[in-house]
Amino acid sequence: MYKKIVLKPKKEDSLLRFHPWIFSGAIQQKDPDLTEGEVVSVYTASGNFIAMGHFQVGSIAVRVLSFAEREIDPSFWIEKIATAYHLRQSIGLVRDDNNAFRLIHGEGDNLPGLIVDVYASTAVVQSHSVGMHESRFEISKAIKEVLGDHIQNIYYKSETTLPYKADLGAENGYLLGDFVESAAIENGLKFHADWLKGQKTGFFVDQRDNRSLLERYANGKSVLNMFCYTGGFSFYAMRGGAKLVHSVDSSGKAIMLTNQNVEMNFPHDERHKSFAEDAFSYLARVGENDYDLIVLDPPAFAKHRDAIRNALQGYKKLNAAALRKIKPGGILFTFSCSQAISKEAFRLAVFSAAAITGRSVKILHQLTQPADHPINIYHPEGEYLKGLVLYVE
What we know:
Blueprint: E1 3-7, H1 13-16, E2 21-23, E3 27-30, E4 39-43, E5 49-55, E6 60-66, H2 74-90, E7 100-105, E8 114-119, E9 122-127, H3 130-134, H4 136-147, E10 153-156, E11 173-176, E12 184-186, E13 189-191, H5 208-217, E14 222-226, H6 232-239, E15 244-249, H7 252-265, E16 272-276, H8 279-285, E17 291-296, H9 308-325, E18 326-336, H10 343-357, E19 361-367, E20 386-392
């Protein structure tokens, strides 16, 4: 029997529309001994069951796991992970030339607060809520149960993603197996994912489809990959037949990883050079006709709503700098991964950048996240990645 939360009158409307969050202001009463991370049953003011989920301290008080009464036991985790894995299989992501994909994408897979990425035989688990942290061992067992021999190692990486006020003392480490030096494969290209010390879970699988699109545009072009991180866009551009590819990142470690990944796919290929340098400094010093194709894939400029205004100014400044330097007839791939920035606001920032430079610009593609980062139709907030492909006259 789970502890209870009762909502204020008429505060169940969003749950009737299957939105997976319950905000603290909607709660009328809760069991006094309720602790963060526990599974709770939620009732309307009139006493009707409506949902169950993980309780947490903060603005979002409950992340919904089920809209039906059921046990949150090992069979629950196996069922949810099996459903998610079947989706990835059905859309053709699990194959010999592609063993890197997102297995669980939080609300998009009806498991709010949980991210799981797969790199070859290793699954990297990341919790964003105390409830998922407390369930990590059951989740790990379920992943192994569902994926079987495809997964030999499960690494837990949540030190920086859990609510710091919860003071959990969480440490990164292996829940199953140990470190194995192996390359993951994405659309036939190999790469090393640094889940031990790298950003997020070690690689950005959310740009897979957009990298494939860039590959189709790269033939014969001089390509600049800004904020390259581990070089994903760079080695796709090289396979696409780019005549030169320059990778830029302010992190020396990122440049080292980029060089390793490029070398693994294109040994001793002199078309590629890399630079550990600030993006704005680099764009300021290059020539106006050096590049036919530029990629702008910066880290999140706004991680919360208070930072939106400054972030939009940053996107405008960055895109203006790139638009000033790209060759006539060039193509710009530009992105925002800030969930707090809407598609409309990002597009307006890029529009403003184009107006500042006076360049004639056309939109060729409007981009988003791939199918293994599904958006729950009842949770539009899950659409975080947005991008534009621009033709610059």
